[in-house]
Amino acid sequence: MYNTLKRKMKIIYYKNILIENKFNIKKTWSILKQVIGKLNDKSNYPYSFIINNVSITDKQEAAEGFNHFVSKIGVMTSDNVPNSNKTFSSYMSNPVVDSVFIEPVSPSDVLSVATKLKPKLSCGHDNISTKLLKLSIEHIIEPITHVINRSFHTGIVPKQMKIAKVIPIHKSSDQSLLTNYRPISLLPAFSKLIEKLMYNKISSFFTAKTSSTNTNMAFEINTLLCTQFSIF
Fold first, then answer.
1. How far apart are CA 123 and CA 171, in angstroms?
2. What are 159-185's pLDDT values in tens digits?
3. Could you tell me if 116 and 215 lie in one domain?
4. For residue 29, what are the CA distances in angstroms to 18, 22, 34?
């Protein structure tokens, strides 16, 4: 009797919170994972990892093993891509002869981009999340604008903004095998400002130069820019 009532109350509870969050897909998935018992519990991580057919329990050695494994993914992917006789110029039937001039951004430009960032709690190596950046941007807008303009002027992105914190996420199967993990990279929140501001500049240039003659080309260029900047 008790267990039957408990199950009914549990069903009613989850039904109600799913209805409440039906327009919040992230929360809905979180609830569903809770129902089926699939939570990101660090206590479920394996005690050891198999690296070069050896069971490794030392955290430093495991981290170095992951680093070595992740660093080879790009090379292995590149090696699997078939060679092509085409060059980049073969895709540029109507080249744009004008040069791109990256004008300096203003504090209002930076503020506009910062306020549109998603307020996430995840952060890069500097431990500054986009949520914290959005809360503090008005107090540091002048020096940040200066740094961004210097980056545009010199063509150099500050090294600290290019450091990514790589986190292995388990996919499925044996948790002790490195091949069953996929890496995600967390870049500093400040690098997202430079990325978006540069995207806006280049996108505006190509749109202005191509939209009047070829709408499809303008769309393709913007799509390409979105793809390239998403992996920057």
1. 22
2. 999 999 988 888 888 889 998 988 888
3. yes
4. 10, 10, 9
Question: Does residue 128 contact residue 140 with C-beta atoms inside 8 Å?
Answer: no
Residue with tokens 């290019």: 162
This model's pTM is above 0.70: no
22-36 core/surface letters (b: 16 or more CB in 10 A; e: else): eeeeeeeeeeeeeee
pLDDT class of 74 with cuts at 50, 70, 90? confident
Residues 107 and 22 in one domain: no
Pairing verdict, β 165-170 and 181-186: antiparallel
> CB–CB of 109/146 below 8 Å?
no
Domain annotation covers residue 142:
yes
The pLDDT score that the predictor gives to residue 141 is 96
